[in-house]
């Protein structure tokens, strides 16, 4: 009851006024999209029967890299450098970021290998759905549909993030912190070459990895049992919760809610277009916007620092 009473107080003061424009904008964009029949699913035949083993193997690759291969690399490097087996603290921040980048490259490489070793019909269905005319022009069209979806869902994401932020401020007295990945990229600014490679991995590799895993394999498998909308919601919840991190503290509240909205639209556009290139397009451009904002903020600070001197 205390949670409800505190949350209710948020919308009684001047704080609620800052929600007016995001609310009107998001509702207007969604209404226009609805009137243009954007939210209609195409008719499809019975769901593709994907074996449970595919998503299991894929997530084992990810977990194995994160919790076995990378820690092993850390320990071996620590032994060669110091003569002792130590943890992450034996490395500089720059080295840790380079090793994290190595982890992304390893996962991506294993993912590519995995996709080329599975049955051809499974691979084609994951990436192209029921589209028979597979071409570069179709890929670009699907990618751009993902970009359009970002335009539609971004105002709603901003609204949800702002509402969650106000609730967090009222209950805990503080707004959330940045996502771990964004914070790492922010701190990597001190190392230009590292920042460039990390940015490229966040914009290109990470979206492909996550879309193949979550939308491509997991959502395709779950669709058999829960239908399209059930699979979209279920996978969106898993996707959002996977980005939970203890270091984000109470910021998890804002981040998870916002990421759920993003993941919902990622799943929706996959079902609507039936190709993986659409959610990849949405995800790539979303991450590109995030990285660009971060880059411009640091660039502005650098320019201001130079002008002062």
Q: Your description of this structure?
A:
The protein is an all-alpha fold. The protein has one domain (2-49, 133-308). The chain has helices at 2-10, 20-35, 53-82, 93-117, 120-128, 136-172, 180-187, 192-242, 251-273, 277-308. The mean pLDDT is 88.
- The gyration radius over C-alpha positions equals 21 Å
Major sheet characteristics: none
Q: What is the residue-averaged pLDDT? A: 88
- List the secondary-structure elements in sequence, H or E: HHHHHHHHHH
Proportion of helical residues: over 70%
Give the end-to-end Cα distance, rounded to a whole number of Å: 55 Å
Strand pairing plus helix content: what structural class?
mainly alpha
- As residue ranges, the low-confidence spans are none
Shape: globular
Number of domains: 1
Number of H- or I-type helical stretches = 10
What share of the residues does DSSP label as strand, in percent? Answer: under 5%
Number of strands: 0
Quick summary:
This protein is 78% helix and 0% strand. It has 309 residues and is an all-alpha fold.
Identify the notable features of this structure and list them briefly.
309 residues; mainly alpha; 78% helix; globular
């Amino acid at each position: 009851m205390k949670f409800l009473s505190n949350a209710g107080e948020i919308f009684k003061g001047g704080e609620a006024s800052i929600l007016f424009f995001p609310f009107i904008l998001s509702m207007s964009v969604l209404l226009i999209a609805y009137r243009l029949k954007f939210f209609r699913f195409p008719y499809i035949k019975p769901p593709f029967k994907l074996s449970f083993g595919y998503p299991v193997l894929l997530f084992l690759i990810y977990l194995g890299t994160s919790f076995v291969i990378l820690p092993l690399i850390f320990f071996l490097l620590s032994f060669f450098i110091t003569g002792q087996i130590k943890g992450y603290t034996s490395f500089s921040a720059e080295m840790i970021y380079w090793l994290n980048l190595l982890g992304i490259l390893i996962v991506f490489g294993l993912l590519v290998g995995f996709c080329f070793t599975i049955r051809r019909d499974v691979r084609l269905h994951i990436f192209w759905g029921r589209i028979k005319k597979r071409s570069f022009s179709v890929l670009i069209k699907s990618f751009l549909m993902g970009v359009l979806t970002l335009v539609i869902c971004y105002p709603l994401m901003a609204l949800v993030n702002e509402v969650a932020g106000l609730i967090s401020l009222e209950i805990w007295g503080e707004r959330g912190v940045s996502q771990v990945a964004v914070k790492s990229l922010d701190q990597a600014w001190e190392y230009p070459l590292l920042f460039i490679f990390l940015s490229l991995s966040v914009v290109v590799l990470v979206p492909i990895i996550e879309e193949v895993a979550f939308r491509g394999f997991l959502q395709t498998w779950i669709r058999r049992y829960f239908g399209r909308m059930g699979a979209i919601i279920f996978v969106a919840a898993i996707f959002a919760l996977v980005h939970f991190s203890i270091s984000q503290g109470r910021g998890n509240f804002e981040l998870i809610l916002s990421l759920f909205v993003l993941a919902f639209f990622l799943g929706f556009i996959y079902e609507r277009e039936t190709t993986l290139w659409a959610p990849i397009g949405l995800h790539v451009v979303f991450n590109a916007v995030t990285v660009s904002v971060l880059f411009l903020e640091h660039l502005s600070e650098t320019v201001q620092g130079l002008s002062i001197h």
